[in-house]
Amino acid sequence: MTARADRMASGAPAMLGLVVLVGLNLRPFLTATGPLAPAIRASTGMTLQGMSLLTLMPMLLMGLCAFAGPAVQAAVGARGAMAWALLLLASGSLLRLWTSDGTGLVGTAALLGLGVAVVQAVFPAVLKHHFPRQLAVATGLYSAMLMGGGALGARLAPVIASAAGDWHAGLAWLALPALAAAVAAMRILPAAERSEAVSAISARALLRRPRTWLLMVSFGLINGGYSSIIAWLPPFYQERGWSPAASGGLLALMALSQATAALLCPVLARRGRDRRGWLWLTMALQAIGFAGLVAMPDFLPSLWAMTVGAGLGGCFALTMLVALDHLPDPARAGALAALMQGGGFPLAAIAPWVVALLHESTGGFRAGWAMHLASVAFVACLTIRLAPRSYGPALAIVAERPSPR
Q1: pTM for the full predicted model
Q2: Strand segments (E) across 45-137
Q3: Is the pLDDT of residue 196 over 70?
């Protein structure tokens, strides 16, 4: 075992702890708003389309700012980029304690999206660097914690808001775990991480490859289903007579199912390089869940929430793993994952807004769920092209470039 491998092995428990803490902070601010939507709308006067901006704005920034992730890492290193981004997350959540109108809420959502964008652009390369032989397990853990954080946000936001007698508290408490993650990143990540940053030349080369755009579209359409679910699943069932706490519990159940699948799918798929069978399984689960929401929403709603959650969580983790599989160099693989998110999240961000428009024109959410059912079918067709033998030819020019040092 090399000296570098020895250092990685000795630091593995701390790094795994950081993976857990970082992942838990990246989604609860999104899932917390759905269960509190009636209280927020009553207090601020926001419309459904206005509420959709609380998901659209951060996800749009999570995409657009992901393109700058490699440059940020080159400038301040992975440790600095992660710490500052997590501090931005803490600040955005804390400011919500004093935000009383829709404009302020959308502004804080933008701060939160910016922080998450940097973390999501930088962290995949950190995982590939520190866990080169256990990448599937590390990616699964990261994805599971990301989804698990969503479950915590959905479940705890209405509870804390009810205990405090104020919806502001249900959003602002998320500053505490973000601050803890920022401190942990500064203590655990080595300063030398900046040498792994990918060059702008490699990023431009990636953007010229059709495979990068295929991954963007697939990632965006699948995560559009996630952004619509977290935005509209609680209001969907509140329109059917559910309480905020009950609808938040359903969203939490969905997120827990996501977390379980995000953890298990990469581990189960790790024995072979061809992940397509597992990807199609996760898409079948999404199709079942969305079809249930369209056709029989009041029949076993927990089943639809769990199946769509398992499909979304497993597909997210496997798609991230497929992107990292394409290139052996951690910096370039991380850049591909960042660009996939950069193009995918803006597409995903539009989905809740489109669902809100469909709600206004049809009087319900079922047309939106049907739209996502069609998206799943389209991505299933695109997945045919993700055979492992195609990885090298698809990105050959990028892989041949000298690694930046």
Answers
A1: 0.77
A2: none
A3: no
